[in-house]
Structure formats: structure tokens, C-alpha cells
């Protein structure tokens, strides 16, 4: 089996393109944006299930904030900076300092914790031109940034809940499992050794409580804390690092995040940085290559092509397309004056899961013939076809009872594990 290139698929399937006027930037076409929105909507639903509140923060912020957080010293060379009327500012390369600003906006009580924020954060990074690679390495992309502000006693519970979430998400996207690495303190870092000892021990404890087998990556942690890195394996055996969970005592200190503890005194929260996909653009590139463009039906940019056989069935096919669209299905009408074999070939080239055929026989008895990727075909009454395809193409997040129960169970078990240590 030969490898496929998401850039070639993006062109062949009319999903996106890039051009010299915007190096490292993505031009999303209608079909590509439909896929993007399907991924985004799914993650939004999953994060909401897991108790995260969605927020939105600015893309352009004063450089002084990035200096205070430590990002300017660490990543300044890869940040887009500008001077406006004598005020230095930067396009954000990540959203974590912004989330602290929302946490800090009012006095917090220990009773409110954990507080969970999530954002589809548009970020920019000045990557070198030689490192750019389609969706996999871009200068402008969207991160599914999430942050938890909690007490130290809640850390293990929150990390285990996140691991439960990841298992469900990756399975829904068609990945059977993942490997996990524990990245420990780098040579250049913030915080003292005692803090790093505690943070690394908590991450290791959470991995055990979540039943994860981790390998150690010495020195690969972030400058503010250690992290768990979740790596997917695609159909070609390639490994892709996507999800992360990073434990951070540094940013709450530098950005003066506080809450009122049980004793009435100010206390520092612990901050957990989460990402399920990492970059939506990069994850879509991985998805396209993993599935060779034949995405699961709930993700397909167009789920159904409706094709008429002849001119007489034009109006009937047009009506069918509207009925499919009315129930929320993504439909591509093919009402060209081409022969049906040509339409079958074109629908397959676009990797559309189902071709709905409207011929004279179907029009006469208010039915439709559904043709699958493997050539299998069945004729059904229109109402029955609508109901069947609605069920087939429903996003996995529509059935969330199993995940909710798993999240509840993980919180109970991991809290017990913390107390026992």
C-alpha cells in the first residue's frame, strides 16, 4: 500500500489550497470547510460533555503579556510582532495566557474549582519556510486549546477524565489506539526542582490511574511543566503526536492567578493545558491520509450525491436533493446532462459515501436507489432512505451516555487513587 499525500487529496477533492501570496496559510474551499466544521462541531460537543466552557480570546495582545508569561523569552523568534503607535504587540502563538486573564477577571472560590475552559484558538507562528508542509506544518492554524484551573488534589482526577475523553474521541475518528509518552523537565526551564518533582510524580500517577503504559522522554517537557503526549498510529504505521496534557505551576505564579481557599487565604491554582487534536488543520491532514480520503460518513464533506439518470428525472432528483438537505444531510446534486456511469465515476473520485440515483422507475414509485462505494445497490422508499441515512451519518457525539458514565467513573476512581497515596 502506497502512502498518500493530504495535499494531493486536498486538490483532488477540492478541499483546500495554498499559494505563494500566503505561505503557510490555508485557503479552505466549501467542501474543505464542511469537513473542518464537522470536526470542530464534534470536538465542541465532546468538550461540552466533559464539562468545558467555550470561550474566545483576542489574537493580538501587548508584548508585555508574553514577556510576563515567559513566552517571549522562549518563543519570541517564532512570534509575529508589530509596533502600533509605539505599542509593541504580538499575534498569539497559543492561548494559555489569555485563559488566565479570564480566570483572573474576578475573585474565585475553592468551591468553583475545577474551572475548565476550551477555545478553538486561531494562532500564528513564524515557522521557517523550509519546515512548512501543507496542513501538517503551517504558520496560521487553529488549536483546540483547553485549560483546567484546579487544586493539586484535583489534578489526577482531571487528567484521568481527559484520558477517558481521548480514548472515545480517537476511536470515533477511526484510530484503534494510541501510545503515550511522559516528557520530563528540559534543561532550560522555569520553576525549581521540587516543583518539577511534584509535577512529574502527579503525571505518572495519573497515567497509572488511567491505565496507560507510558514511555519516558527525558528533557522533552515544556519550559513550564512536564507533559503527556498522545501519539496516534495511522494505517501506514506512521506515528502522529496529537493530544497533550501539560501540568503547569509556573504560569499561575507569573500571571498571578489566585483563588480563595478553604481557610479564607489566597492560594494558587494548578493549571492543566489540554489539547485533544492539537491543530485542527494538522489533524485533518492526518485524517485524510489515514482514510485515503474515504472519510467516515459523518465526516464526509458531501455525504450523498443525488444524480438523475435522464432529463425527465431532473425535477425529481432536484426534489430528492432538497429533501435530503432538509434533514441535515450534506448533499451534492449532480444534475448534469452526463450519462449515469460518468456520474458514478465522479462521485467516487470525490470520495462520496453514497450515490442516490433518481431514474424513471424511482420517480414513478417515489423511491430512490442508494449505491455504495463497493457497488452494492438497494432501492428504498424515500422516507425509509432518509431515516436510514440520518442514522448512518449521525455524528458519534449524538450518543453520549457511555462517555458521560465513563467520565463519572474516572473521577471517582482517580480521586480515590490520589487519597490513597
From TrEMBL:
Enzyme class: ligase
Listed Pfam families: HGTP_anticodon, tRNA-synt_2b
GO molecular function (one): threonine-tRNA ligase activity
Limits of the Aminoacyl-transfer RNA synthetases class-II family profile domain: 5-296
Biological source species: Paraburkholderia acidicola
Keywords: Aminoacyl-tRNA synthetase, ATP-binding, Cytoplasm, Ligase, Nucleotide-binding, Protein biosynthesis
Name this polypeptide is given: Threonine--tRNA ligase
Family recorded in the similarity comment: Belongs to the class-II aminoacyl-tRNA synthetase family.
InterPro entries for this protein: aa-tRNA-synt_IIb (IPR002314), aa-tRNA-synth_II (IPR006195), aa-tRNA-synth_II/BPL/LPL (IPR045864), Anticodon-bd (IPR004154), Anticodon-bd_dom_sf (IPR036621), Thr-tRNA-ligase_IIa (IPR002320), ThrRS_core (IPR033728)
Signal peptide start and end residues: none
EC number: 6.1.1.3
Catalytic reaction annotation: tRNA(Thr) + L-threonine + ATP = L-threonyl-tRNA(Thr) + AMP + diphosphate + H(+)
